[in-house]
Structure formats: C-alpha cells, structure tokens
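Before the break, one more example. Copy the sequence into your notebook; we will annotate it together after we see the structure.
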Amino acid sequence: MYNLFITGQDEAWEKLHYEIDKSRFLEYTNMDISDVFKNAKQEQLEALKEFPCLFTYEGFEGDSKVGYLKKISDRGRTYLIEYSFDEKIPPIQSSDLKDIALLLDIRGWEINRTHWAIKDEDLLTRLSEARLIEFEVNKKNIELPQPSEPHTLMVESVKSYIETIFDLNDDQDNDVFYRGHSDKKEYKLVPSLFRKDKSGNYKFLDNENVMFNEMILSNSSDFSTDASTLDKLVRMQHYSLPTRLLDITSNPLIALYFACSSTYNIEVEGEVIILKVNKSHIKYFDSDKASCISNLAKLSKIDKENIIFDNNLEEFNKQQVVGRLLHYIMEEKPFFQPRIVPTDLQDILCVKSKRANSRIHSQSGAFLLFGHEAVMDEKGTDDIKVKRITIVNKQKILNELDALNINDSTVFPYIENTARYIAKKFEFISK
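Here is what the structure looks like once it is written out:
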C-alpha cells in the first residue's frame, strides 16, 4: 500500500507541506480502500502515515520523490499534509517511473490530474525490482484500519420512525430535508454524475457535457419549455441521466419509503439521512448562483480542468473558460452581471426547483446541486448538518406505509406503476 500524490504546481514538493482539496482525495483508488478512508477520522488518517508516499508531478514532469507523511490536518474543505523524504532514496527521474506506471497502478489519464490516491501496490518493492532504489526492502505487514462508522439511531416501524423524527427536528434556524438509501453501506451522499466504479474511476463525469448535449439532441421537444439549464438538469434527472443533482425530499415518509423500497436488498439495513440546511444555503429555481453551477454541465472536461480558482476576482473572470461559462449563463439571464465569485462554483446548494412533473410534486422533491468537484462530507458540513437513522424490518414498514397510501402508485404516479401496484396487490398466491 502507498500514497500517490500528483500535482500540477511547479516545485510543490520543495516546501514539505501541501494543501489538497478533499474532492481530489481517493480519486483512482479501489473501492475497498476508498470505503475505509472516505469518512476518515483521526484514527484512519493516522494509519496513512505508515504507508510510503510517492510525490510526483502531472505528466511525469520533473523528478519524483519518496517519503512519508508526518501530519495530516483536516482544514474543512482541504487536507494540509506535512511530510519528509526518505534520505536513503534520491530523486527518481520521472521517465523511469513512466516505464513502471502500470505496475504502480498509475492509470492512463491519471498522471495528468492533481489528486491523492491510495494504491494497493508495494511501492518500495516495485522500485527495488526496477532498480530505481539500491537497498533491500524490509516488508512490513500493515493492516488497514476499520472504517469510521457514523453514530446512527435505529427504527423498525413507521411509529418509531415518526417519533424519532419529531425528537430530532427541534431546530428553528434550518430547513429540514431527507434522503432514503436502501443500502446504508453502499450508497453515499454523491450525485450520480460523480459516482465511481470499483477501481475508483469516475463513471460519467468526464462526459458530462456530451451526455447533456446528446440528451437534448435526441429529445429536443421534451426540453422546449425549460427556461434554464437547471430546469433541463432536473428533467434529465427525472429520466435517470447522471447529473450533478442529488434528490432530497421535505417529506420524511417519502425518504422512509425509498430506504425500504428495493426488493433486491430488502434484508439489508437501509437508512434515512436527515439534512438540516442553513436557510442561507437554500435557493430557488431562479437563483443566479444555481445558474452558475448548473451551466458547468455545458463545459467540457478540459475546460473544467483548466479553471484556475486561486486568482483574485478580476483575474478569475478574465479566464477564457470563465468567459465561456458566462456566455452560457447570460443566454438564460441576459441581465446577469458578468462577474462570478470563484467559491460559488465549488459550493453545494439546496435548490427548490419548479415542480414541473408529477414525480417531483408527489415526492415533495428538492435537490442538492453540486458545484465543481464539490464533495459532501458524510459527517455533514457547516451549512448542511447530517443525522442518520438506520432502517430495519423493511417489509413491515412498507406494509405500514401502504396503509398510509405511500406506495409505488403514489410515489411514482404513472399509469404503468399504478397498474403494476394494483396487479401485485390483487395477485392470487397459492398457499
């Protein structure tokens, strides 16, 4: 196991400290390892100090170095790492690393992206076998720590669930929303666009603008009444296209239904996540900030990669790619002042959209809109506080919800779902 640090900053590894955005942590990391460190507390972070580190540059430019982490500080949106280099290992020419990249599990495009990965490879042994280091490696057996489990409550009936909801919802300063997961271990607070495969590669993110354009091209009449890019994203989400929207609801019983509804994992523990959102972070469908984030969907992968966020306000808005984004925004908001606040593009907003279809209306729907490389901390943030309720005895709860008229027919109000629900309800089953 080793830590791989790749940066595009010139001479970054000369300072012995480095700040990296949490959105870049665990990219290109296998899912089993990612699950351990995704909700990392200090115990998990301390374990990373046992692994050797490879510090290199985008495109294998410059020399690479090997060392160890000395300190990892959680700075909210970022991690600040402090490190030292192994004195026994001189700088390694990056061209030599390029020859063994696959053996180090450094994949294709990965070397062109700033990030922090944890690789299930023996770095020192690989370097020794390639004769890039000249001493015998003493292998240490380092076990992965246990994943950090957030504290949760547990319910097994609608009655106990409602009582728990009332006990928890005593906050007058925030609006409360809910999200149901049918498998508490598998599903995270991540929009479908940002989901990764088992190897830690993004499944859809690189082609966001292509999917957006193809969807409109193939179904242009369906989008003819949508006034904004946000409206289009909501419709695409409705038809299951991966977007940067995450569905939430203001109705706790709807979230409970989703936590129980999957017959595939009816015996697996589900969960309802309670999201207490600061009122200042709640926007409506016509929000300028929501428009700025939504229109990121029209930018290519390269364009988004080229946005430089450490400029001041004026320099930021002079960038060519930001000018392109402003053009998209002003197409739907002609009077928009052509100045974007950089941090606005990286935020997570709670958006109350138009209830333009029966599904959003029946589910009391709203969305979390994720900005550029935004990451929702599973433990919550300053603006979005998170509590969790574990759901067991799902079939009993589904039966109780049905008695309250919450079922496939009412949650998904389409004629085919109503027909399926009625047929199942009156199906003869021999005993």
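Residues 2-129 form one domain. The chain has 16 helices and 15 strands. Try to locate both features in your own notes.
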